[in-house]
Design brief:
about 20% helix; 5-stranded antiparallel beta sheet
C-alpha cells in the first residue's frame, strides 16, 4: 500500500466519521472533549480528584458516541475517562445541532 493509498483511505474514513456525526448529533445533549477523544453523550459528570498530591479529572458519561475512526463500534452505554489534562463540557442547544446539508 502506497502512502497515497493510505492517505486516501484515511480521508475516506474521516468523511464517513463526519457523516455519522452529522446523523447522530441531534440525539445527544452534551459534547465532551478530552485530550485524547471527542464524545457526544446524554449525561456527563466531571469530578476533580487528588491522589498523592496529583490532581486529575474523572469523567463519567452515559449513552455515548465516540469520535474515533478506528473504533468499529462508536456507540457505548457508558464511558469513564481519567485524565490529568483539561476536560471541556458543552451543553448542546437545539440550534447547535442543526448542521448544514451536504
Amino acid at each position: 500500500m502506497s502512502t497515497e493509498d493510505l492517505e486516501r483511505y484515511e480521508a475516506e474514513m474521516e468523511l464517513t466519521l463526519y457523516r455519522e456525526y452529522r446523523d447522530v448529533v441531534g440525539i445527544f445533549k452534551y459534547v465532551v472533549e478530552t485530550d485524547r477523544r471527542f464524545y457526544l453523550c446524554n449525561a456527563v459528570d466531571v469530578k476533580a480528584r487528588t491522589e498523592a498530591g496529583e490532581v486529575f479529572f474523572e469523567v463519567t458519561m452515559t449513552d455515548c458516541w465516540v469520535w474515533d475512526m478506528y473504533r468499529p463500534a462508536r456507540f457505548a452505554k457508558g464511558v469513564k475517562v481519567l485524565t490529568f489534562k483539561d476536560v471541556n463540557v458543552e451543553e448542546l442547544s437545539p440550534s447547535d445541532m442543526d448542521l448544514p446539508e451536504k
